[in-house]
Amino acid sequence: MAAAAGSRAGIRTFAEGVALVTGGASGIGADLGLELVFRGAVVVLADRDAGGSRAEAGRIAAAGGRAEGVTLDVRDASAVDALVTD
User: Fold this and answer.
1) How many Å apart are CA 50 and CA 40, to the nearest integer?
2) Alpha carbons 82 and 31: distance in angstroms, whole number
3) Residue range 39-71, pLDDT digits in tens
4) Whole-angstrom Cα distance, residue 59 to residue 33?
5) Mean pLDDT of the region 12-17
6) Is the distance from CB of 83 to CB of 70 less than 8 angstroms?
7) To 10 degrees, the CA torsion angle through 80, 81, 83, 86?
8) CA-to-CA distance for 11 and 2, rounded, in angstroms?
9) CB-based burial of residue 61 (10 Å sphere; 0-12 exposed, 13-18 middle, 19+ buried)?
10) What stretch of H or E contains 21?
């Protein structure tokens, strides 16, 4: 059965999950982070733009979600590993 337009019924949730979103300071990454929060995830928005990722996390928190903005350059494999471990 299809969900009604504008409804989140029947959509996969991520309760108790943590989602790491790269490119989370703007655009698709920021939108994905917000959608994951709506679905119950705690979101870590990672981006080279530290101010942007923190600002987006602040907007999510202001909307009632749980998010953190962090600085990350995905070209640095050890930094990615450290963030995932954290």
Assistant:
1) 24
2) 24
3) 999 999 999 999 999 999 999 999 999 999 999
4) 11
5) 84
6) yes
7) 180
8) 10
9) middle
10) strand 18-22
Distance CA 27, CA 49 (A): 13
Q: Which residues contact residue 70 at a Cβ distance below 8 angstroms, ignoring those fewer than 6 apart?
A: 44, 45, 46, 50, 53, 83
Total residue count of the chain as it appears in this document: 86
Structure token digits, residue 43 = 């979101």
Distance CA(56)–CA(73), nearest Å, equals: 17
Residue 28 carries which side chain, given as an amino acid letter? Answer: I
Residue tagged 């749980």 (tokens)? 66
Report pTM. 0.83
Which residue do the tokens 């979600």 mark?
Answer: 65
Q: What values do phi and psi take at 13, rounded to 5?
A: -110, 165
